[in-house]
Every structure is written in structure tokens, then in C-alpha cells.
Amino acid sequence: MAKFKSEDLLNELMEDVSKMQEAAAFFKQADKSKLIYVVDKNKWSVVQALEHLNAYGRFYLPAIDKVLAQKNDTHTAWFSAGYWGEKFTRSVKPTNVFEIKNNTKALKKFCFPNSLNVETVLQEFGEQQQRLLSLLEAAKGRDLNTNHVPITHSKLVKLRLGDAFRFLVAHEQRHMIQARNTFKLTGEATDRFPVILQAVPQ
Questions:
Q1: CA distances (Å), 44 to each of 13, 35, 50, 86, 172, in order?
Q2: 148 forms bridges with which residues in the sheet?
Q3: Which candidate, 165, 176, 193, 155, places its Cα nearest to that of 54?
Q4: Is 61 exposed, middle or buried (0-12, 13-18, 19+ CB in 10 A)?
Q5: E strand spans, the chain
Q6: Which distant-in-sequence residues (6+ apart) come within 8 Å of 50 by Cβ?
Q7: Residue 100: which pLDDT band, with cuts at 50, 70 and 90?
Q8: Which of 10, 106, 119, 178 has the highest CB neighbour number within 10 Å of its CB?
């Protein structure tokens, strides 16, 4: 399994979240009518993709906050990914900045209509990214291995704290690239859209 120096991992994830904030700022300045553009009935608009991420944030951010509030652990310098954490993170993390190759089907409760209020969705997404940055900062000096966070899909599986952060950020990267590609199909330029991630090995 993958192994990381804990502080380096958290700093890298914070840089990734900062890119999400830049992407959110890009969409906030965009023509709002383009954010509800749908390629076809089986595809999400930009705002639907962002609300999907908001829904995940509503689950994971309080769960992570609850773990960090316990403060019953000691610092470990290294983090080793768990089986499920590595599996889930790899299943959602894009391998390049251009496309999403490994398609997955979202649970119905994480799918939303295209009648959402664009400003409300963007506002919540921005607030969640700031909260995620705060949680990553709070996790410094904590044990990323022994603390565990529940997942949305099963009550039987929990992720190590470090894996919960990795999965959440990878999931955001996935759908932010999806949102960028959808927006580009409206004919709008995306050259000022931030580079969400560096290429990772297959």
C-alpha cells in the first residue's frame, strides 16, 4: 500500500483544495446560463456536478470534524494507506487533467435535478473548500492511521483519516474536471481554468 510522510500529504492535499477554490472562482465569474448547460439527459451540468460534491461534503466534513474533535491520539510522522482507502481513492482519482476514463454510477441520493439555484450551489461549494482546508490544517500533528471515518456507501467500512482526506479530494478533482469539460462544450474558453492535478501513474 502507498505510504506518505503525514505532513507532506496534508500539505499536498491543501494545495489541491486551493486549486478547487480557484476553479470555484472561475465558475463564479462565468455566465450562469452556461453552468446549467446539459450535453444530454445522461450527463450532468456544471451545477449538478458541484451539488454532487456538496452532498459528499455534507457527509464527510462533519464526520472528519467529529474525529478531529476527539483528540485522543498521538502524532505519527508517516501515514500508510489502508486497503479500502487506496481502492476507493484510485477508483475516483483522474489520471490526467483532460478526461475521466473510469466511469462510475452515483447513488441516487447524490444525484440532483438541473433546477438548482446556481449562486447557492457555488456559495456552499466555496464554504466547504474553506472548511476542508481548516480540517486539513487541524489534522497536522494528529495520527492519520488510527482514527477512522465512516463512508457514505456502507456502515461496515470505515476509512483511515488520511484516506478519508485523500478520497474526498480525489473525488473533487474527478468532478471538477468533468465540470470543466462540460463547460467547455458550451463554446466558452477554459484556458484560465486551473490545472486541477498533476499526472499520476496508472
A1: 26, 10, 10, 27, 15
A2: 160
A3: 176
A4: middle
A5: 3-5, 78-80, 148-150, 158-160
A6: 24, 27, 121, 122, 125, 175, 179
A7: confident
A8: 10
CA distance 142 to 74: 6
Gap between the Cα atoms of 80 and 86, Å rounded: 10
How many whole angstroms separate alpha carbon 121 and alpha carbon 49?
10
Mean pLDDT of 59-76: 88
CATH (one of 2.102.10.10, 3.30.260.10, 1.20.120.450, 1.20.1250.20) for 3-184: 1.20.120.450
Helix, strand, coil tally for the chain in percent (to 5): 55, 5, 40
95 or 7, higher pLDDT = 7
Report the alpha-carbon distance of residue 195 to residue 202 in Å, rounded: 19
* Per-residue model confidence as pLDDT tens digits over 135-188: 999 999 899 998 899 998 787 899 999 999 999 999 999 999 999 999 999 999
